[in-house]
Write a structure and sequence with these properties.
The chain is mainly β and 206 residues long. The chain is built from two helices and 15 strands. Strands 1, 3, 4, 6, 11, 12, 13 and 15 form an eight-stranded antiparallel sheet that branches. The chain has a seven-stranded antiparallel sheet with strand order 2-5-14-7-8-9-10, with no helix packed on it. The radius of gyration is 17 Å and the shape is globular. The chain starts with a helix and ends in a 5-residue tail after the last strand.
C-alpha cells in the first residue's frame, strides 16, 4: 500500500497542471545568445532587433519535453526582410552551425503563422491552414496566444483559440521528445516578444 501511495504521489507531482517555464525576470532554465539577441524587460522576453538580424537565433529550454500542452503569448513587429519567428518543440541544437536547431516549429509571421514546419530536418511545411483562417485568427503586430499540444504522434496548434493544425506524424524515425525554443529569423529587421510561457506535461499517449 505504501509503494502504491508513493507512486500515486509521484504521478500527481509529474502532471500537476500548467507551470511557468519563464519566471519573468531571468533566463534560468534557458540557454542561448542572451547578451546581444535575447533580453528581458517588464516580464517579457524580447528577441532580435529592428536594426537587423543576420542569422536565425534560438533561446532554448535546458529541459526536454515529450507530451505536453504549451501556451504562450507572442508579438512580432518588423520593417524589412523575412519578418518571421517561431516556437520550436521536440527539437535539438545542431552542432554546426551552433545557432541552428532542428525539429518541429510552430511558425510565426511572414504569412506562416499557425503553420507546422520541420526546421532544418525535412525542411518542409508539414501542415498549413487556409489563408483566410489565419487572417481571421491572428492580430498582426499585437499580442496573440499560441497553444501547442503534442501527445505521441498527434500535434495540434491553436492561434487565439482557433485550431490551425491537426497533424499526425507517420514517419517512424522522428523523435517525440526534445527541447522547446523561441526563434527570431535571420535576414530581417524585426523584433519578437514572448510572455506568459506555461507548460502542462501530459502522461504518455496511449
Amino acid at each position: 500500500m505504501k509503494s502504491l501511495f508513493l507512486l500515486l504521489c509521484s504521478l500527481s507531482t509529474a502532471f500537476a497542471g500548467p507551470m511557468a517555464i519563464f519566471d519573468g525576470k531571468s533566463f534560468d532554465g534557458w540557454e542561448g545568445e542572451t547578451t546581444k539577441v535575447w533580453r528581458i524587460a517588464d516580464g517579457v522576453i524580447h528577441g532580435g532587433s529592428l536594426e537587423g538580424n543576420p542569422q536565425n537565433e534560438f533561446l532554448a529550454t535546458k529541459k526536454q519535453y515529450q507530451n505536453f500542452r504549451l501556451t504562450l503569448e507572442y508579438k512580432l513587429n518588423g520593417t524589412e526582410g523575412f519578418v518571421n519567428g517561431g516556437v520550436q518543440f521536440r527539437s535539438v541544437r545542431i552542432k554546426q552551425p551552433p545557432n541552428e536547431m532542428f525539429g518541429y516549429q510552430a511558425d510565426i509571421g511572414a504569412g506562416y503563422s499557425g503553420c507546422l514546419y520541420d526546421e532544418s530536418r525535412r525542411k518542409t511545411m508539414l501542415s498549413k491552414p487556409a489563408e483566410d483562417l489565419i487572417k481571421q485568427a491572428e492580430k498582426p503586430g499585437e499580442w496573440n496566444t499560441y497553444e501547442i499540444r503534442a501527445e505521441g504522434p498527434h500535434i495540434q496548434l491553436f492561434v487565439n483559440g482557433v485550431r490551425t493544425v491537426d497533424y499526425t506524424e507517420s514517419a517512424p524515425d522522428i523523435a517525440l521528445k526534445g527541447n522547446i525554443a523561441l526563434q527570431i529569423h535571420g535576414n530581417c529587421k524585426a523584433e519578437i516578444a514572448f510572455r506568459n510561457i506555461q507548460i502542462e506535461e501530459l502522461p504518455e499517449a496511449k
